Amino acid sequence: MQHGAEERLGDGLIARWVSGAHLHFADDEARKSYQARAQLIVDTIRLRDTGKIPVIPAATQKFAFDYVPVTFREAMTEFDKAFAAYVRQYEDTEFDAYVGPEFIFPAGMFEALAWNRVRLPGVHLPDDKSFQFVEAEYMKAGEYDEYLDDPSDWILRKYLPRLSPKLEPLAQLPPLRNMVAFFQGLPDLVLAAAENPGVVDAMKALQASGAAVQEWYDYLGRIDQELGGRLALPHLLGPMAHAPFDIISNYYRGWRGTIVDMYTRPEKMKALMERLLPWQLQYGIDGAKSLGHPIVTVYLYKGADGLMSEAQFEEFYWPTLKKLLLGLVEEGLLVWVFTQGKYDSRLHHFKEIPAGTCLIHLESGTDAFLAKEVLAGSQCIEGNVSSALLATASVDEVEAYCVRLAEVCGKGGGFMMDFSAFLDEARRENVRKMIEVAKRYGRSS
Amino acid sequence: MPQGLTEAIVNLRMDEAVTLAQRMLAGGTEPLAIIAESSEAMQVIGRRFAAGEAFIPELIMGGEIMKSISQAVMPEGDEPDTEGAKGTVVIGTVQGDIHDIGKDIVVLMLRIGGYTVHDLGTDVPVEDFVVAIKQHDAGIVALSGLLTLAFDAMKSTVDGIAAAGLRDRVKIMIGGAPVDENVRAYTGADGWGGDVGRAIKLADEWTDGGA
Description:
The structure holds 2 protein chains of 2 kinds.
Chain A: H1 9-19, H2 28-45, H3 62-65, H4 72-77, H5 79-92, H6 107-111, E1 118-119, E2 132-133, H7 144-149, H8 151-163, H9 186-194, H10 197-230, H11 244-252, H12 254-264, H13 266-291, E3 295-299, H14 310-330, E4 334-338, E5 358-362, H15 368-375, E6 380-385, H16 387-392, H17 395-408, E7 415-419, H18 428-444
Helix pairs in contact in A: 1-2, 5-10, 11-12, 11-13, 12-13, 13-14, 17-18
Chain B: H1 4-10, H2 14-26, H3 31-50, H4 56-73, E1 87-93, H5 101-112, E2 115-119, H6 126-136, E3 140-144, H7 150-163, E4 171-175, H8 181-187, E5 191-193, H9 197-206
Parallel strand pairs in B: 1-2, 1-3, 3-4, 4-5
């Protein structure tokens, strides 16, 4: 895709996102404040030295819930309560952007389908515990060719039935590729559906799940209006895309299966990753268009130090991730690369992406000072304030660490203050101190 | 240079390793002797891991090869004797947390490192730890958790072990990505590890390397 002088998708989206044209602002002051914050976020990712350190939230869960309080169960079922929790949390803290309950999925979406990839509070876990995903082998080792040959068929008739007992009847449908015309395919298809009440029930389960999702989307929209339009906070988490390796290991083969495949069928794995790549790229681009959001988030799971050798990272993980990042950047989009785990030895790879296009999240396991050294002038970094520190340390200890981050990593721009991971247990005074240090640095420089 | 079965396992050639094991069995080698040789190969991988020369995929792949060999050579239903001499460990992911990858690797590391390990699984209630410590006369307890929400469950587990009068009998380690010295102090555990390699080092320190 060559763009030449014509405006790229991302350029228009950035201008629109910074303007806040998608929001109804409470007043002019809210509009100006929103625009200043959104511009600061963009400028910081672009490595312009603004003299300020934006402070952003990776995401908050129990930390937000405790403002009402609501349990994890309630947050997934009673959206008005959770709405109040997020509003109070952001009223009480001076972040420069917000991440809302985008990962506090509606329980009804999973329950209507008896989705077995998730353990839910109030069903499998106590109400006050976070829902958790189950990583298992949903794709068998011998199914690579079947997937590569006809991915949608595998997803419809193998994957979905394995993820949900309610969708098991879909396995009995004929392959859709057989549906050629009324005299080939149609009778088989309609008979398979009509003679199997399970297929009708599966559609009803999808409908019920969809109703829960619709209610949840409405709630996310109300949050965006309230936090964006009234509290003047740009929404940081927009469209998403996945590293192809992570799709295989998290969702299809499981970590164990993936590792066995790396040793026993590496070429099949690589072929599947190459197949997934253009779809993920398009998914991110389409998401950016439909949400009107210029920052695509890519959460990284299995590429961390220790989870594989550098040679394995370079052979299996990085090639398709790099192409994904380059593809998004070529469209003028920005990418929030959310590394999870220790990334010290991988950081240098992000220099292979055009400078000032990525926002690299660092968990506490990564050495932020090393990251600054490696990525200064290449990519913006953020995060690293440990959850454990925020949950268990004193205000003074939090201040000391954040001051060091601000002074070293904030030097010359390209840094945002943020915690290490999704925030659950944390002392409010510690979080306030983290924010205050970032603001103080901005004022003093 | 390791030879034959050991060499195939150490270099993670699964099909070859299983075929060799089957041939040894057909040639009259005792199943337990084959398992013993496989375990020694795993120890080589474990040592490489401890030295930073091997990574989690090598460990997991080695474990998968061990599993396949065991299935191929052991009579059905007969478990190989994996009693370790260094000490007995009770391990589990604490209540409310279902993450198991880190824990499973620690289990593997401790077993190939010479410990008897009783794995209680994930989302383990406090009382199950207490029962297991008594039942197996364990000297070490390992609590795993990936969520920061696990901190409180770790603390409750340590407290529960103390309330059962067992605190002086066991050393307790906590492990998982978000764990650090602050969390160790908060939970009242004796040691902590943020990566899987630390567990075996702690256990060896506490047992004088099993000596």
